[in-house]
Amino acid sequence: MTMLASLGELLSTIWTVWAVVVFGGIAFWALRPSNRTRFESDAHIPLNDER
């Protein structure tokens, strides 16, 4: 039972580190200056009345 518990702790730690890395990558991608114009134009999509 101890082996299974330690394996669960290891997998939990790996999962947490992976989630933080993925979140950091998404945040880095979203906050890059090259994406600013795209996001600004996408923010106005709901306000456009043209069809």
Explain what the structure shows.
73% of the residues lie in helices and 0% in strands. The protein contains two helices and no strands. With 51 residues, the protein is mainly α. The model has no long low-confidence stretch (mean pLDDT 91).
Summary tags:
single chain, 51 residues, mainly alpha, elongated
By secondary-structure content and strand pairing, the structural class works out as: mainly alpha
Inertia-based shape: elongated
Largest sheet: none
Q: Please tally the helical runs, counting DSSP H or I stretches of 4 or more residues.
A: 2
Number of strands: 0
User: Roughly what fraction of the amino acids lie in strands?
Assistant: under 5%
What separation lies between the terminal Cα atoms? Answer: 63 Å
Given as residue ranges, the uncertain stretches (5+ residues, pLDDT < 50) are: none
Order of helices and strands: HH
**How much helix, percentage-wise, in residues?**
over 70%
Topology summary:
Blueprint: H1 2-30, H2 36-43
Brief summary of the model shown:
This protein is an all-alpha fold and 51 residues long. It contains 2 helices and no strands. The chain is elongated and about 65 Å long.
